[in-house]
Amino acid sequence: MKRIMLLLMLVPLAFAAGEWTGVAALAIATSVGLLVILFMVGHGFSINELEITAKEELYQVIVAGLLVIFLVASDNVLDMISNNQELTGGAATIQDAAVQSLGNDLSSLNSLLSAVGGYDQSTAYQASRTLQCSIMSIGYSVSGCGGYSMLTTPISMAGGIIGFATAEVSTMKRLIEISQAFAMPFLLPLGILLRTFKITRGAGGLLIAVAISLHIIVPIGVIFNDMLGATFLADTAKSAGYDPTSAPDVQVKSCNPGDVTTTPFFVDLGAASGAEKAYSGISDWMSGGGVCDGDNNEDRATCAYGTLRLGLRNYLYIILLKATIGPALALLMMAASIRALSALGGAEIDVSAISRFI
Amino acid sequence: MPDICAAAGGVSELIANNIFTMVAVSAVTASVIIAASYMIGQFLQNPRLTAWSKSEVIQLLVSVSSAIILVAMMSGFCSIQIGDIAAIFSQTSPGAGNIYQGGMDYLRDAAIYAGNAKTVVRYHLEAYTVLSSVSKFECDFPIGGGIGLGCMFGYSGTSVQPFGTTAYTSALNVMFNSAIISQMSALNLLIILSAFYKGIVFLFLPLGIFLRTMPYMRGFGALLIALSLSFIIVFPLLLGALSIMGNVLIDKPAFVPNVGGTSLGGFLDEGVFNSASGLGQSAAAGAFGGSDSIRSTYFPDGDNPVGAITFAACAFVAAVFLPMVALLGAIGSTVYLARLYGEEIDLSRITQLV
Fold first, then answer.
1. Of A113, A294, A320, A114, residue with least CA distance to A228
2. Which residue of A57, A120, A150, A255 is the best one to mutate when testing the B interface, meaning the one whose CB has the most B CBs within 10 A?
3. Hey, which bits of chain B come out as E strands?
4. If you placed Cys at B315, which of A279, A337, B114, B141 could pair as Cys (CB 3.0 to 4.6 Å)?
5. Rounded to whole angstroms, what are the CA distances from A352 to A336, A358, B26, B170?
């Protein structure tokens, strides 16, 4: 037992060695020493369980040694994946390409939130307009712009959705930035080192899995989503007859608070059907002229609603496809990868709880 | 409650006086029970009882070995500096202290970071709430500066609310909740770590060794030992690794990120909400050309809702996502170690709590 204690005391000394490969070698040597003692005890007292355990553990130590050799001798394997020009699209690495893509998405979302904030301000301003007139405490107050209030709720929802999307993209970007700084130079070697000892094998396997997943899987998930987006833009959007990346033309016309007249409103949707019918109907209504500059506030509010409804189509690509489905896809890929790799690393970690964050 | 590394007389004395004493008492008690069982087995010529006693001796040795390994690791963790580990991997640790200190410092700093994110989001929400309540009266027949002929002989004009902020408020409300959860999550994990570090291990370890030798209690005893090993070795080790990454994870030492090249530090001072009076703002709005002057009271350099959302997202990564990975690692390690002791324990229900 004293020998075991002595060998265990080597662990703190090992951490003072300097280079991580030296520490890993010392850790492996310590593990082998412990296993030899374990085997001898088992052999000496005829305890088969100890002998079998010692042999099993020896395989794990050999695997740890192979991992160290793999990382040191072929440290460019992961870099080769990172530098694959088919994936990077001109950037130096897939991580750079992913960060660049997410940065562009964030910039787009920033513009969208500003635009929606602008619509919000315009509609709130119009909706709140109340005409007042009083002389010597005698007068009246008229609020003819109540129709604009209906726009507040959808605009608020749009803001909330953009907020979610921004948070998702920011999270992805942060994770990749962390991986760029620490995955390969710190987490992976630390994981291999910890995997050497039985007590910390689970933690070591988890760190290896997290490092590889953050370094490779998350950026690939982002790039994969970019490819999906490009396909959508090239085919689906074109066939739908509009450009989802164009800036929407939302018209919030000025309201006259003193005007309380209403006109029966009717839009002829024509012979078209389904979504096309609705869109073409609103387009006709808009291009027909006169309605958005209609004679009463109700027409103007309805027109603002119609233009907002049309304009929101242009937001769907960036908000839903790029900033919601994309990060969810990448994070699910990462969670699945952590689970699979941690199992390979020696201890399966149930990361279904992490998937629930998505 | 005793503190493992900061105990009077050092960790060695604490281990000798407390843990080893309790472990020894448990081991001796268990040995007496096993010896009695063996003797009864011999007396009654009952081979099952004799065989059980022999197997329990080995299990007792395994348990005591675990205790020795654990205290050796604890002693090592008290002396290993987090900066030394960082140096091995050519990293620079933003913090100092041993591994336990590093883990606790990280969670404390993550709570501070999430608190800052909460403040930045709250600043925006406060300002937008004030702005959304601002009303303005536009006199008919304006002659400039908010004054019109309509207000000269009576009260004729249009009342408006110039700022609509529901979109921003809706976007930020979600992130405000997220920032609160982040801060609470970091503090929750800090309490868990502190509880193990400052005493639970002293209870779990001896109790686990004793119970593991008792009939029908091996699973529970194995769980207690595995929990001790996981939460006093694996959990702080993983958190210590996060503390080495603190300069990126929690933007040490500022604890505020730069978003788009701009620091969000200006939004940490909420003093403007105490000092800005409605009368003063009304006068300023009237004298200096409208409601934009009120907006600039709260956002002198412009608002940054996307920056606030990004900050809250970063806080979620630092205070929820990665610490939860560490917690899941510790729970997974508990299952693994319990299996090592010959018992299959299903902790999947506990991971549901994450």
1. A320
2. A120
3. 136-139, 142-144, 147-148, 155-160, 258-259, 262-263
4. B114
5. 9, 10, 38, 29
What is the model's pLDDT at position A205? Answer: 84
Q: Give the residue on A whose Cα is nearest the Cα of B235.
A: A203
The three-class DSSP label of residue B144 is strand
What is chain A's mean pLDDT, rounded?
A: 75
Query: Nearest CA to B38 among B56, B58, B53, B55?
Result: B53
Burial of A235 (0-12, 13-18, 19+ CB in 10 A): exposed
Task: Please give, rounded to a whole number of angstroms, the shortest distance from the CA of B24 to a CA of chain A.
Answer: 16
User: Tokens for A103?
Assistant: 């940065």
Q: Output the pLDDT for position A258.
A: 79
Nearest CA in chain A to B91: A186
The residue among B75, B81, B158 with the most chain A CBs within 10 A of its CB, best to mutate, is B158
What count of residues does chain B have? Answer: 354
B179 burial class (0-12, 13-18, 19+ CB within 10 angstroms)?
A: buried
- Which of B76, B162, B171 has its CB closest to that of A159? B171
User: Is the confidence at residue B207, as pLDDT, over 90?
Assistant: no
Residues of B in contact with A136 (CB under 8 A): 154
> If you search the block for the tokens 């105990």, which residue do you land on?
B7
User: Is the whole model's pTM more than 0.90, yes or no?
Assistant: no
- Which of B58, B65, B88 is the best substitution to test chain A (most A C-beta atoms within 10 A)? B88
Q: Does A347 touch chain B (CB under 8 A)?
A: yes
pLDDT in tens, B290-336: 667 778 888 888 889 999 999 999 999 999 999 988 888 888 888 77
Residues A205-264 pLDDT 10s: 888 888 888 888 898 889 888 888 888 887 766 666 667 777 777 778 888 887 777 654
Q: Judge: A128–B161 Cβ closer than 8 Å, yes or no.
A: yes
Mean pLDDT of chain B: 82
Q: Does A182 touch chain B (CB under 8 A)?
A: yes
Residue A110: closest C-alpha in chain B: B306
Q: Do A130 and B241 touch (CB under 8 A)?
A: no
Sheet holding B155-160: strands in order across?
A: A138-142, A130-135, B155-160, B136-139
Q: Is A60 on the interface with B (CB under 8 A)?
A: no
| Whether the Cβ atoms of residue A116 and residue B130 lie closer than 8 Å to each other | no
Q: For residue B311, give both structure tokens.
A: 């900050």
- Residue B184's pLDDT band, with cuts at 50, 70 and 90, is very high
pLDDT category at A71 given cuts 50, 70, 90 is low
- Nearest-CB residue to B329 (from A17, A168, A349): A349
The more confident residue out of B119 and A85 is B119
Nearest to A18 among B88, B156, B168 (CB): B88
